[in-house]
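User: Before I run my own analysis I want an independent prediction to cross-check against. Here's the chain; please return only the structure tokens and, at the end, one sentence I can use as a sanity check.
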Amino acid sequence: MKTATQTIRKIDRLSDTIFWSLLVGIVALSGMYMFNVQKAIRNVVERNNIQADIVALSSKLSESEFQYINSVGDITLESAHKLGFQSAVEKTFVTREQISQTVAIR
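Assistant: Structure tokens:
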């Protein structure tokens, strides 16, 4: 009789251990799942914010390019002189020396 009750107690302890181990595992996995879902939602929101910033910056860049294209035609020698630029008095050009390209083949 003693061995039967001892065996039953061992089985009860083992089943309790298995139950609590599974319960802790389920809670840990549920926590990890909720963390990953939250992280995914934050990433989606952040991506939408970044896309909105990209659209705003692209629009600003387009406006700047348009202003540049319009201003290129307005620059003349007179407007450059008004801004303080001066014409070059002495024009010199730089040339590159020709290096002989001889290769000895042996």
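Sanity check: Helices lie at 2-72, 77-82.
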